[in-house]
Amino acid sequence: MYKAPRGTTDILPADQPYWRYVQTKAAKISQRFGYSRIDTPVFEDANLYVRSVGEGTDIVEKETYTFKDKGGDMISLRPEGTAGVCRAYVEHGMVSLPQPVRLAYMESFFRYERPQAGRFRQFHQFGVEAIGDADASIDAEVIDLGWRFIQDLGLGNMTLVLNSIGDKECRPVYLKALRGHYAANLGRVCPDCKMRFEKNLLRVLDCKRTDFACQEVINDAPKATEHLCAPCKEHWEQLNSYINALGIPMVINHNLVRGLDYYTRSVFEIQPQEEGAQSTILAGGRYDGLIEELGGKPTPGVGFATGIERIILNLKRQNISVESPRTYKVMIAHLGKAADLEAVALASELRKAGVSAAVASGGKSLKAQMRQMSALETPTAIIIGDNELAQKSVVVRDMTKATQQTIPMADIVSFIKNL
Fold first, then answer.
1. Same domain, yes or no, for 248 and 306?
2. Is the pTM of this model over 0.90?
3. Which of 144, 237, 358, 381 is deepest in the core (most CB within 10 A)?
4. What is the torsional sign of CA 205, 141, 24, 92?
């Protein structure tokens, strides 16, 4: 018996209202902030992610679905959204547009990692990118968009977590201090941290393991914000001022780094207060060197992504009700072959008029057909039998009030539309 591959899931009809709810809110908040929709290919040149995400990251080393296609090219299913959007920005000459270029996406992504609640190997994200402006006000705009999106969904008890990790000018000074700290404690940390110490030092601060002394070593580590150069420090202070002006509850976490190499300066997450970083539902930051890395001119950028599966998980946890539209507004019960033909024709006319309609299962008693309508929570039933055909009329039954009336066949479409 075939099953969905491990780490994937079917989005069944019962869950579709949650997806429509989240996607509608995402589209509305993007429009409100002036972010235009962009869709990129589901696969890209594998080197795009090696250059942008970073060769020493877990995504590139362990999680990317990479394969050689029939033309001999190395291809990767997209593991994240920013690299593809930036590639499109460069390829299509968006630098000539008014800056910053504000873009939004809702797409599926693929990472080979251990499946768990709210995390799959095929997953979906809503994300935004603002490319072409280095001012801290744009960071604040992106954060405000993400925060308002979470608020619009009705999710509560959330906190913005913020940090600055500097840029290519001041980060080497910080990394030197961090390397010295970890060199003195290397025997106490986990194997992953030892590997990151050699390949991707900043990522040691992202370790979540508690079976070694990693958390204690992280807590005692030097802080990036204490090693910022003058421009990064000014950007950091301005961003804090903007966030305070926006009234968004904020916590500064000096150990927040993010897992991708392209981030510079500000990084941020929105987390449930009671669960912390393990349940982050929105994350992002600034990436001022990425466009240049992909072959474009030096161009600043900032953005975020949020996992739709994890958002839906939090909606359910917080018992946020989502309207579930009825399958049909009208169902037609019919008795006899002549009534069967009339029911099919009437259902078609109702659909042409914009009414969701269906014909009840044929060959069953009226009672059985009505039971089917009740099970589907159909609000209105139309009943056609020999008597109705002879009188050129139908019976319309209100399934919620258990009342009914007879309506001329010629008037039934307009009558139903006016209900």
1. yes
2. no
3. 381
4. negative
